[in-house]
Fold:
Amino acid sequence: MTPGIVLGVGVGGFVDGILLHQLLQWHHMLTSTNTDNVGIRYYPETTVHGLEMNTVWDGLFHTFTWVMVLVGIALLYSRVQHSRGRVWVARALWGWILVGWGVFNLVEGIIDHHVLGIHHVRSGDNQMAWDLAFLALGVLLVIAGWLIQRGASYTDATKSPNRPTTTRS
Structure:
């Protein structure tokens, strides 16, 4: 469970950062600090200095997501090394990754979009709708991931040296 969730947090952050920050350029980490709730200096993405500062903060965000992926891989490797013959099917891992991605959306959306107000999914018209849709996607990812992993089975190679058994979780 834990390796999948941590990997999901990292993957969800990468999807957000790559898709929304870089490719679509809907926002950067500090693009709404002119209306934030904590008084951070405004760095508009329409100026060179503002874009430079937003790029630095986007880089810090990507560093966090990269570290989460590395930690998730390390946890997964550790679990595989110490599984004592119990091997989960990929369905369990992918389910927990979706849960982690959904948790990322919920935490990042609540903290950055609503509590701090430092950026929004898409500023301007329908800003609140975009932010709420981001949270709704997070809820859907958590539910879908939970349902996917719930039906996962594993192989217990310790039951019989000649024939591993497969059971449901």
The radius of gyration is 20 Å. Strands lie at 86-88, 153-156, 165-168. The chain has a mean pLDDT of 90. Helices lie at 2-23, 48-81, 90-115, 127-150.
